Amino acid sequence: MSVESTYEFLVLLLMATIMLELVARRLHLPPAAALIIGGIVLALTPGVPAIKIDPEMVMLIFLPPLLMSGANFTVWYDFKKHFAEIASLALGAVIFTTLTVGSVFHLLLPGLPWAVGFALGAIVSPPDAVAAGAVLERLHLPSRISALLEGESLVNDASGLVLLRVAVAATLTGTFSISEALGSFSWVAIGGVLVGLIVGWSGVWVIRRLRDSELIITATLLLAASSYIGAERLDSSGVLSTVTTGLILGFHQHETFSASTRVRAQAFWKAMVFLLESLVFILVGLSLRGVLDRISGVGQGIGDLIIPVSAVVFTVILARFVWLLGTGALKRVLLFRRFRSGEPSSIKTTTIMSWAGMRGVVTLTGALSLPEQMPGRDIVLIAAFAVIIVTVLVQGTTLGPLATLLKLASPDEEQQLRDNEASAWRRVAEAQYRAIQKRSQKEDGSEMHPRLLDQYRHRAQVAAQYEADRDMHEGIKVDHFRTVLEALQAGRAEILRMHRAGEIHDRVLQDLEHELDLQEIAAENRL
After folding, report:
1. How far apart are CA 441 and CA 252, in angstroms?
2. Residue 447 Rama label (left phi>0; alpha psi -120 to 50; beta)
3. Helix (H, G, I), strand (E, B) or coil at 356
4. What one-character DSSP code corresponds to residue 75?
């Protein structure tokens, strides 16, 4: 396609993402599922140009900002608390799935080398951060499950990509060395984390010296790209590097960013993630045409591929469940013998976490990156695409109903969160009142800001009353902030009237509107 045609097609895809997002919301479907279906429909529509995906370019463009966003908004406390279980999933489950899928694949297609099966296993083993984030965003799961799934999806890509690199080298050279594989894995992991630490801390140092929100937001975007590229240049993990950088920036954003920068950055990253995720899943659907072309080009017919491909999909799903069930049983034994603390995973938790293993962009790009001369490449690509389709369309669309059926939403946890929020608001109000009280008092004992002192004293009293009896004050609180929102809307209408009448300048309008926006955000968050 020409440059003009490519641009026009990109605009068409962006328009399609909005329509498909609306359809997904109307039908209560995960957006990822609707976007993949939309991409498949476009791929099969006559006249739509064929899209050739460059895997390296896709990884470079899409992964860094998506990983940065996911890591930046990760709950740091939960990530540290559950790190052992996250590592078990990101490393243990990936290796177990790789070996299981490779064995099943070789059993059904013994004419291909073992390493080909293990390459396929490495491709389909890591659940995808993009797919998981797109589905989990709309679910209200217990915090432990969300922390495990989100943390796993951020770091497991590195394990899968390293195993893929080793399997491809073994296929092409016919040799395999455990020591070399372990050395390669160690450098990829450690090198990626080190690069991420360097870029992350350097980024914090630079951002603290910037003043404009636009420069800070641009810097965070560049840090994601530079962290990924820098690690990849050193043959280490760009995924781990970007995640490490994102965790550092996310931890320090509360002191480093101003309130205005945070509001703008959140809006920017939300729009950026929406666009990139939407394009990724549409591209996954559009890649169906290439897969169909490959099916017609391989020596075997579609009927010959149904059994091995179906077996791979089934094995991918089952292997994750077996790993979680096995590690859960081991944890119960260790807890029983008092070798470790914590709580064992219930069968409900194991089921929902097993069913949440969606695959996406990393699986697709990993399959597309296989060398042309690799034996069985076309079958591997077909199987990888089938895994993506089944896990996103089937598991992704049924994950919400399954969580509801299993009744995983914990009333105790929700109650604890509400208690913590009420306590936090009371302590914030008391701290603000003390600060005003100290600043307001003159040397002669009189008050410099009596009305401000009364205002913050009232806030502290109301917060304490609300913590003591939330049920009685909930209606008052809701009515209060709805009244505030009504007043803000009236103020917004007045400044718009003055602007249209030529009574105030554009700059004044923008400043006043921004202040009202911040107040509206604060009021809406209290409802």
Report:
1. 34
2. beta
3. coil
4. -
Residues in CB range of 524: below 8 A, 6 or more apart? 481, 485
CA angle 426, 429, 430 (to 5 degrees): 85
Residue 371, helix vs strand vs coil: coil
The pLDDT-based confidence of 318 (bands split at 50, 70, 90) is: very high
Could you give the residue ranges of the DSSP H alpha helices within 287-376? 288-297, 302-336, 347-355, 361-368
Q: How far apart are CA 419 and CA 468, in angstroms?
A: 10
b/e string for 475-508 if b means 16 or more Cβ within 10 A?
eeeeeebeebbeebeebeeebeeebeeeebeeee
For residue 441, what are the β-bridge partners? 447
Q: Which amino acid is at 55?
A: P
Q: Which amino acid is at 33?
A: A
pLDDT tens profile 103-156: 999 898 888 888 888 889 988 988 876 666 656 666 667 777 777 887 787 777
For residues 382 and 290, is the Cβ–Cβ distance under 8 A?
no
How many angstroms separate the CA atoms of 243 and 253, rounded?
15
Q: How far is it, in rounded angstroms, from Cα 225 to Cα 219?
A: 10
Q: Which pLDDT tens digit goes with each residue over 25-75?
A: 888 777 777 888 888 888 778 777 777 777 777 778 888 888 888 777 776
Q: Which amino acid is at 60?
A: L
411 has a pLDDT exceeding 70: no
Q: How far apart are CA 12 and CA 282, in angstroms?
A: 11
Q: Are 95 and 159 in contact (CB under 8 A)?
A: yes
- Residue 355 region by backbone torsions, left for phi larger than 0, else alpha for psi between -120 and 50, else beta: alpha
Rounded distance, CA 129 to CA 154, Å?
Answer: 6
> Among 63, 42, 64, 104, which residue's Cα sits nearest to residue 317?
104
For residues 288 and 43, is the Cβ–Cβ distance under 8 A?
yes
User: In Å, how far are 5, 292, 392, 502 from 45, measured between CA atoms?
Assistant: 17, 14, 22, 52
Query: In this structure, how many other beta carbons lie within 10 angstroms of the beta carbon of residue 165?
Result: 19
Whole-model pTM above 0.90? Answer: no
Beta-carbon neighbour count of residue 520 at 10 Å? 16
Residue 520: phi and psi, rounded to 5, are: -65, -40
Given a contact cutoff of 8 angstroms between Cβ atoms, the answer to whether 377 and 371 are in contact is yes
DSSP secondary structure of 23-44: HHHHHT--HHHHHHHHHHHHHH
Q: Which two tokens stand for residue 292?
A: 């169909």
Q: At 351, phi and psi to the nearest 5?
A: -65, -50
- Measuring CA to CA, which residue among 380, 367, 378, 384 is closest to residue 297? 378
Residue with tokens 């914090």: 204
